[in-house]
Please model this.
Amino acid sequence: MTKSHHRPTSLISTGILLEQIVRQLYPERAPGALQPLQWSILRFVHRQPSGDATVSATARFIGISHAPISRSIATLCTKGFLQSKENKTDRRSAIYTLTSQGKQTMDADPFLRLGPGIESLSGHDRAQFMRQLRQVLIELAKEGD
Amino acid sequence: MTHTVLIVEDDAQMMSMIAEMLTRAGHNVVKQPVLGETLASVDKNPKIDVVLLDIWHDGRPAFDTLDQIKASHPALKTLVISGGGGYLSTEVSIAIADLGQADAILLKPFTRSSLLFQISKFFG
Model:
């Protein structure tokens, strides 16, 4: 008997695998550990050519509202990963930069743990995997739009 | 050194601004406001050496267009620009563009100097 590829159990199993990948990437869920949103913020600041970012720019980039970004940035400053400096072009909003602790932390980005798994794929399989991930994500996002 | 840049951008104001930034620096510009005509533009203009591609066009992503350019014209440099405007966040959009092997990514709003610096960086 041919198995349907759309049986709920296979979809659940696929979801379980995807969820497990994320859980493996962020194993440290203790209160003091950096949370996924905080990592997103650090990565955004890190990629800026100027090395700094505002709350607004960060919120626009990640695609969520200002309030959670503002709270997370405040936490990251308290923990010593970010520091604020004067924004000479707009005094109403501060600019945030990575501290040296923040820069060092980027070397421990949990997404780097994907390395061995991704590198175990052949070049062709890797390209296919990326394309398929993209397709699944796009379909999910379109449904939720 | 002068280069020919194909600008694929559906926002007329942004297109005009980018074109001016590039022409004032001495580059040649080909304008393409319609995403679906990108490959035809590349095929018709063999002098194009950079494709500047806005990743969202009227709510539609340009990821497939990026794939097609990379597959059919691997020597072309692709510069993806993004400022949001689709059903994926900018963070996710540029991650996809990066996996699509865009040669460089610039976030809007970008300055004239960062654009020109990126173009010059492509050619050493």
Notes: The mean pLDDT of chain A is 89. Chain A touches chain B through 17 residues (CB under 8 Å).
